[in-house]
Give the backbone structure.
Amino acid sequence: MKVLQTGNGARAVSAGLEPRQASREEIPILDLEPMFTNSPAGKAELAAALRQACTNSGFFYIRNHNVPQAAIDGIFAAAHGYFAQGTEAKMATHVAKSRNNRGYAALLEENTDPTARGDLHESFDIALEVPADDPDVLAGKVLYGPNQWPAGEPGFRTALETYHKEMIALSHHLLHAFALALDLPETYFDGFVKKPLATLRVLHYPPQFGEIDDRQIGIGAHSDYECFTILAQDGVPALQVLTKSGEWIAANPIPGCFVVNIGDQMARWTNDLFASTVHRAINRSGRERYSVPFFFGPDYDTLVEALPSCVSAERPAKYEPITSGDYVNGRFAATLAHYDPASKAP
């Protein structure tokens, strides 16, 4: 057992690399259909199940999410094609050339676990497309700005923009479900996500063979920074979730489902009622692995502080209020080798 410092404090982390398969009680499958059919009874049932999942493991699968399979297939095809290119082609849109953390990052350039030696994946990031002359960009809010795109690859851009749009729509439905799970009006969070910090990442993991040092794996043990993450996995298992008892469990791919997990900002909003759970990825399959996480958080200037319904005399607020932008900037600066939020680079 070791102690890992995450965004919301220290977590005890088991040292073993071999997880057991998660049970459906630990990581349940939730049916999102009521959020699209507007069934009051269905929404109430979903809200209760969602609250239980978020207070228990902070992880769950969703089905009937209304994201077209063509959009999912399209982004995985784009990822395969993009990462198959040579290093020179990919480095042409390296994230260091973007002030707002958009573009390509190579193996070991991210280190999500500060006790480790770098993550064995390469990635390509986009976020909400915000023009360079936008007032928020001109004001120095570095998480806003234009995306970088590889030259001569319109299909890659189309696939990522299409999927990003689908994820934005799904995220709004999920936020409505979260509000109901917290006994809030369904549209409670809508005013905080007019211009969300919504990052789409495509990831490629080479396989790891033989004896593995747990200080250098696909993604080191960490919690996510935003409100929640929606993850699309290919058929290669790698995702592991840390239970409250310190045991690693496998969240393997389920056809037709996304994996969703709570992030630090939702944990802060709920005063840790909802769990932002430590997780990691280790690709021991012998095959290349591709995954597509979508990180959804509130607008840059949103003040993230404990919701009134989540504090009491017996449960005082655990965290100082912080804006969404300041929180994510601080976490990026600690984990990304290239990231400098004070940079004046274009």
Q: What stands out?
A: Residues 2-335 form a domain with the Jelly Rolls fold (CATH 2.60.120.330).
